[in-house]
């Protein structure tokens, strides 16, 4: 069974706008899957929600160039990919986790996500910041529905050309700071996943979301705009933290994930 990581149901409604084909074609040329593409806003800024949890403005899309080829042109890939820009190293990344997440188990999940990165001894050190305005802010917000779907997390895209991570990340506090009951089991993975985008990792299955999402097609002609990370698995790998969707369970870094992280950083 496959439950989407970032969307928890699939009702129909039309509170977001269709995207013009020109923008969609540009995103496809950059290697994004545009099946779920919508025009929306994030904290008042206009842009597009891509692959369900990546928010990009027109400027972000322009900045994702120059375009680079993937390794082999295969149509279906579940390998690891990074964006052209990555965070400059060595660097300590201060990351703020909103105190609007009032539950101690959710705050502990954030610390656990940072610990997972730090356990790999990367050239990036992940450190909790005490106030917003950090290198990456993870903000609590009760996210509205997008086409009737509940969005669990949203990243502000990818690192900029100056080597800074993307910020902020929005985490749906209606889901991850529940007033009663347990916190979803995938909370550490979702936090690590959104940080993954902020430091330059693409969805490992962006060519074929059906691998993790159970639906969604093979993009076929997409083939540029994502750089293959050498040494990562060439075949499907269940459990990667950068799959577009998951079983809703906790997924510590796989060996392929670890290779991807240690190769880039
Ligand atoms: Zn994602």
TrEMBL record:
The keyword Phosphoprotein does not apply. GO terms for biological process: proteolysis. Pfam families: Peptidase_M57. InterPro entries: MetalloPept_cat_dom_sf, Peptidase_M10/M27/M57. One of its GO terms (molecular function) is metallopeptidase activity. The keyword Hydrolase applies. Keywords: Hydrolase, Protease. It comes from the Bacteria. This is Protease B.
